[in-house]
Every structure is written in structure tokens, then in C-alpha cells.
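INFO batch 0412 | record 1 of 1 | parsing
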Amino acid sequence: MSISLKHLILHSLELAADGQIALQARSEEMLHSEQALSLIESLHLNFSGRAAKGFGYYPPENTSTFKEKLDLLLSRELDFHRFSVDSGSVLVEELKKYEFIEQGVLLLAHYEHVAGEYLLIMLLENKTSPAVDESLELTASRYLETSSIQLAARIDITDMQRNAESRRYVSYVKGRAGRKIADFFVEFLGCDDGLDVKLQNTVLMQAVDDYCQATQLDKEEKQAYKAEVKSYCEQQLKDGEEIVVGELAKALPTDDENVDFYQFAAENYPLEEQFPADRSTLKKLAKCFGQGKGVSISFEQKLLGERVFYDEASDTLTIVGIPPNLREQLKNNN
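INFO prediction complete | emitting C-alpha cells
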């Protein structure tokens, strides 16, 4: 992988005698080594492959402490070690505002990849596991948990400096329950909310539906069209790439009588040129699903009008041919 490591440092967040989280800082940066480079390559891939990410940016009026430190680093008024210690102190102060306690190893890495310059910030768990030494005696082995990182952010410095209109050069891992666990980490970064990935995917799905209606596709043509969209988006997701609206439009069928999908979307919907795919939203291309008041329903769109019938006037759904396992449950609970 073409990563060039510029700076790397590890600090520790630990409980002090007073029960408060404190920063235990290294006195100097880490030496560049094969192990250090391998670690950053692994973390870069891990972060890039995460689907559940939020995005942010720093508007001109932003006055967050972290952004001030970052500006000083980039203008070379602050060296990387001082920047890392100051940033760690800002994180500790932010963490003290919350009731829960987060300990671990704070990693800050400044590196280049392809044509971009990045700053990676992660709070990693320092774990212990059983091991066997050369004498076949049990001992304890300490390691960094890098497979399921929940507190991490990456700043695309190149995009931040070159693209004043960008609202996505800060990216961060979203917690399992939305942003609740990662709130303090986002507050520490001090960025404003930027690109809404789920919203972009939802708008894209609406644009596809409306385009099918506007071009008067019949049911079979509509299903085939949505299948092409789904195939493209899922392949991008699998490859770790983003949905590119222009690229998607080129992969879709069109004719001389209608505008192509790219022009239709550009004229009618607030879509970015490209954005990450959201797996849960993509399901809407092939399925109808919903839940509420104790009822959860999901079925393939192609079954609507064949085995599943909706009466808008009475707001009822009729299913012909109930799945066998559901039928048995209904018999037993009747």
C-alpha cells in the first residue's frame, strides 16, 4: 500500500488517583519502523472500510479548540508532538463532561496516501489475553484491539485545504446506537455536521422511483431498472467505493425520448456528485418493508400485485400464500 508515514504517536488515557481520566503522554514521537507503517496501513484500511461513518467540516466561523490546534500544526507554528499532547488534553476535558469512563491508547498519525494527506485519530482499547511462553507457562499478553474500533476520526487535510465547499473532509465512526457513544469524540473534534449519508441514499432512492414514473416504465421495466441500480450500488459498497451519480447514470439504460438519469437527478434533487452507499437504505430498491404498533412486514417489491395486494381505500394488505413457518405459528396461536 502506498502510505507514507510522516508522524505517529501514542498516548494513554488512564484513571488517576482522584478517579478522573488523565493523559499519560509520551515524551516524543514514535520511531518510524515496519511495525509502525504496518499498523497505520491496517488502521487506514479498517477505517476506509467502515460503512457507518458520519461526516463533518469546519465552517469559517468555527472556533473549536481542536481546530485552532490543527491550524497551528498545519502552519508549522506547532510541532506534531506538542499538537498531540494539546489534542489529548482537549479530549480529556471533553470526556470529563460525560458520566461514562473511556480509557485506552490515543493514537494520532499524520500520513500521506496516494494524492491525499490525512490525520488519523483513534482511541484504541489496550487488552490482555492469555499466552504461552517458551517454557510452556501461561503468561499475559497485551495487545491493541484494532478490529472493532468505535472511537475514530480521520481528517482529509488535502480536501480541507483545497476545497472550500467540501462538507465531508472530517469523517468519524458512528456508534452502534447512532452517535451516543461517540458524542464526546465528535465534540472533541469540534466540527459541524456535514454530509448526511443516509439522507443522500434516501434521496437517490426517491429519484430512482420518480424517474421510473416520469419515463412511464412498466412494472417489469421498473424492476429491471431498479435491479441495475442495486447491482451498481452494492458493487461499490463491496469494493469500498462511493456511489458516483454520473457513473451510475452511464450504467443505466436510456432512450432518445427521455433525459438520462443524471440530468433528471441534477435538475430535481439535492444530490452530491458522489457519496458512500448505505446498506440499509439500498434494501428499498428491492423490498417493501415497515414496522409499527407491533407489526413488522417485509416482502419483495415484485410480489406487489401478484401475491401481495394493497387496497388504499381500506388501508389493508392482503397476502396470498403465507410462508409455511408463519402458517404453523398462526395455527398454534389461534
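INFO post-check: DSSP finds eleven helices and 15 strands in the chain.
INFO record closed
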